[in-house]
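stuck on this one:
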Amino acid sequence: MGGHLCRRTFSSWHLADSPASGVRLCAQRRVSLRWPLTLVRIPEKHKGVLVSQNESGTIAIPMYDKDDAVLVLEDGQVYAGEPYGALGETTGEIVFATGMTGYQETLTDPSYDRQIVVQTFPHIGDTGVNSEDPESSRIWVAGYIVRDPSPNVSNWRAEGSLDDDLTKNGIVGLSHIDTRKLVRHLRSAGVMRAGIFSGDALTDPATGALKTIEQLLEDVKNTPQMQGLSLYDEVSTKETYTIEPCGEYEGKEPLYTVAAVDLGIKGMTPHRMAERGCRVHVVPSTITFAEIENLNPDGVFFSNGPGDPEQAGPEIELLRQVLDAGYPFFGICFGNQLLGRALGFGTYKLKFGHRGINQPVKDLTTGKVEVTAHNHGFAVDAPIGKQVDAPFENGKYGKVFVSHIDLNDDVVEGLQCVDIPAFSVQYHPEAAAGPHDAAYLFDRFCELMKNNSKEGK
């Protein structure tokens, strides 16, 4: 599709000028459309009609004007809506998240670095924003797209509106487009590069005229592909900080000490460990193995994070040193992919990924199904249903098996080592936001550290 003219036939509507309403609906007919297609914002009852900028007679209103916000996809589709948040230009990989709630946690999840997020739930912003729910110190998404932003904020914890928060943080967004149609397209075509343009970014400074689709598309295609990007250093903490035991363990000596390597860690993750009596040292991605040893940890954790795991060579080598030393290991999301690669398995990019808080996952060790929170565009390529020798160095790390699978598509969602104290999951048991079905995995990590301590590492 993108880049060349490909003819397709759609069932569409012919639009013509109408003095009364600006557009009118004529008899339905089969029209042959050319790419790129344009989704033009028109009166609500006609919203979502696909028209072609190249087909004479199929469009009788401007594609967009200087007051619009315009979304341009890599394959040439264009959606005109209204600005939401800051005005300007942003590009990145466009993905969609299916959660009905938890938008503040989504926005501040470092795993969304350099991604434009589309919310599939139509009404966003009802509960405003507060200082308690963020998963990190800033908003990480590159851009944000919603269908119908809430005009009002109604929540006892609210400290401001989402729109104002996006504007303050310079996050360029777009609203009032048919997000269902957009997401259906992304599910079919796969996630891709995209750009949101509004305000001065729509104007050619040389001529003062509106930029053409071709000009906007060129900016999109100059954006780096997610596959091949190394981003974990970009989002990692620069200095070590410590989370002390909390809840019933507050003020007490820690039961276990954990070195948590921050590759884009969410704030709730060390908190879940602290709730179980752990002292958690959150360390930069640049930490050396010797520095980890100096912390004298009972276990090592690798967090979630953005980018392509194939580009994380230094972290994979660090993880192998951790495994060689016999430290209990737990990985989440990016950490699961790195364990897979450390064991000798490959990773691959999913067509449109898993992002939301309603993914069914089966724990193959218990047979139980849990509803889980996800945010990943890559997955581990490992055999399901049997124990195998870890491929690295002819089985150096012993036996391993896939412990969890996604019931929607059989994607690997967890790995369990048999002969060394290491396991990981692809999804987010810290559940921020999301269900708490998988909280037992933190208990499993604590049990692993407890047993390893008894045996003597």
